[in-house]
Amino acid sequence: MVDDRHVEQELPPLNTLAARVEYLFDKIRPTSEELSDSDEPGRRYTNKEIADKINATAAETGVTISAAYIGELRRGVASDPRMSHVRALAAAFGVSSGYFVDEAAAQRIQEQIGLLNELRRMDVKQVALRHVLADSGLSATDTQLIEQMVARLRAVAQGTGPDGISDAPDDRR
Asked: Exposure pattern of 34-49 as b/e (b: 16+ CB <10 Å)?
């Protein structure tokens, strides 16, 4: 049976500013340097954390923003921010400001974020293999089957089963 988790999914439409901002909150996570020892790795940014990132650069950019305003942008209550706020939000999330105003840029950045998140979740070699196979014209299902075969071959070479349990016979008989 083929595992459908790795089949490429269609990107969600980002047709409003609120949807684009929320997408960033959903997909981009704080770095390990931004997390305290008590924070859970992989958690989402808060409105306050993004506001703090923007306000920390106010001396250079001249831009300040409140956590409440970021919440309004996320909910669509505020939908026409100043360009300086758009640039500041983009910088806080590490994306181009074009993401908020240009459909093609938003699509490109969505794809890049997806790839980066995939790289974090998986072994980089597996991601590279997937892209080589996809570029060769194989379907997503065929690509996935080859990935599974490679994973099984690695497990056999390491003497473990697909679940990481040793396949070696028990010598304690």
From this structure: eeeeeeeeeeebebee
Question: What crossing angle do the helices spanning 124-135 and 140-157 adopt, rounded to 10°?
Answer: 140
73-111 as b/e: b if 16+ CB within 10 A: bbeeebeebeeebbbbbbbbbebbbebbeeeeebeebbe
Angle between helices 83-93 and 47-56 (to 10 degrees): 100
Mean pLDDT of 133-147: 75
Phi, psi of 166 (to 5 degrees): -60, 135
pLDDT digits (tens, 9 = 90+) for 53-89: 999 999 999 999 999 999 999 999 998 999 999 999 9
Q: Judge contact between 93 and 103, C-beta under 8 A.
A: no
Rounded to whole angstroms, how far apart are CA atoms 105 and 95?
A: 10
Spatial separation of the C-alpha atoms in residues 137 and 95, rounded to whole Å = 30
The pTM for the full model equals 0.63
Give the model's pLDDT for residue 16. 92
- Tell me which DSSP letter residue 99 carries: G
Apex 41 CA angle, 72 and 6, nearest 5: 90
